[in-house]
Amino acid sequence: MKKILPLALFLFSLSILSHAQVVSEAPHRIIYQLTDGDVDVHEKFLRQLENIFRAAPNAQIEVVTHGMGIDLMRNTNNLYTERIAALVEKGVEFMICENTLAQRKLEKGQFLELAGFVPAGVLEIVMKQEKGWIYIKAGI
């Protein structure tokens, strides 16, 4: 019995490690919804995205911003331009809701050029979910 327990623990540890590696290599597809305009929320959110790529470098990520969340993508006084650009280089797509632009009377030229635009942010999220993407609400 004394010899079996260490062997069982060793085999159990190996199975956990091999499972963790398989999970991190899976091509995860994640759609985030960001509606918060607070810079502290933006800081934590970008750190979360960076952490995902450390754990799962093959992840596909789209961030849909609407409401006050579009402020993350402003092209003036943006504390996070370099970090956002680095995430875009890794494949993250940042989308801005055109309905929000109209409601807030803003123009596309007021936002980072690396951002994309969607007609309706919530509809974009729904369509991704219908295609099997995992939804995460950012900033809570």
From TrEMBL:
Keyword Signal: yes
Taxonomic superkingdom: Bacteria
InterPro entries: DsrEFH-like, Sulphur_relay_DsrE/F-like
Residues spanning the signal sequence: 1-20
Keyword flag RNA-binding: no
Keywords, in A-Z order: Signal
Segments crossing the lipid bilayer: none
Cross-referenced Pfam families: DsrE (PF02635)
Protein name: Intracellular sulfur oxidation protein, DsrE/DsrF family
